[in-house]
Amino acid sequence: MKEKIKETIDKIRPMLQADGGDVEFVDFEDGVVKVRLKGACAGCPMSQMTLKNGIEQLLKKSIPEVKSVEKV
Q1: Rounded to an integer, what distance in angstroms lies between the CA atom of residue 41 and that of residue 17?
Q2: CA 45, CA 60: separation in Å to the nearest integer?
Q3: Which of 20, 24, 54, 70 fits 40 for a cystine, CB–CB 3.0-4.6 Å?
């Protein structure tokens, strides 16, 4: 499961990296994916929107077991 999550996150990483940011997979537990936003994403006021409307939607669509995504 964790490998599938990492592979899916890798699909969105180039878009974040193009804007000076990045996302790192931390853990998956009880349907919750935990990620760490890095670079420009870490302090960006739009990071919550990126997290929920971008990363979370992609993961939920690709992996039905994913219920939500949280940053740590």
Answers
A1: 9
A2: 23
A3: 20
Q: What is the pLDDT of residues 47-71, one digit of tens each?
A: 999 999 999 999 999 999 999 999 9
Determine the residue type at 67: K
SS3 content of the chain, % helix, strand, coil (to 5): 50, 30, 20
pTM of the model as a whole? 0.91
CATH topology of domain 2-71: GMP Synthetase; Chain A, domain 3 (3.30.300)
Q: Please, what's the b/e burial string for 12-26 (b: 16 or more CB within 10 A of its CB; e: otherwise)?
A: beeebeeeebbbebe
Residue with tokens 């669509």: 61
For the record, the structure tokens of 35 come out as: 């990620």
